[in-house]
Amino acid sequence: MTRDALIACDFSGGVLDGTDRGEAFIREALILKDMRRDYKLFKKEAIKRLNELAKPQHTEAKRVICKKCGRPQYVEFMGKNDRFKCPNCGTWVYNH
Ligand SMILES: [Zn+2]
Description:
Helix content is 41%, strand content 17%. It is of the alpha+beta class. The strands form 2 sheets. A two-stranded antiparallel sheet has the order 1-2. A two-stranded antiparallel ribbon has the order 3-4. Zinc ion (ZN) binds at residues 66, 68-69, 71, 86, 88-89, 91.
């Protein structure tokens, strides 16, 4: 009985020859295979959810009026002191 045969659940080629616990080996190998599959899915899902959590917070579009030209803009501010450049006149407009 080789480790590779157990991992692959390949019991052909006489790998079970010479053991009187063939059925127990097969049962155990199949359970372990399922466990590996479930663990892989679990890990994948856990990483996906961690990435979701680590994403930056959703920001809402905010209507801001440029102080220089008076043109309203809809911008998504990330933080309190962020700024954007007015596409109409090029003035920096701050989030405060
Ligand atoms: Zn402007």
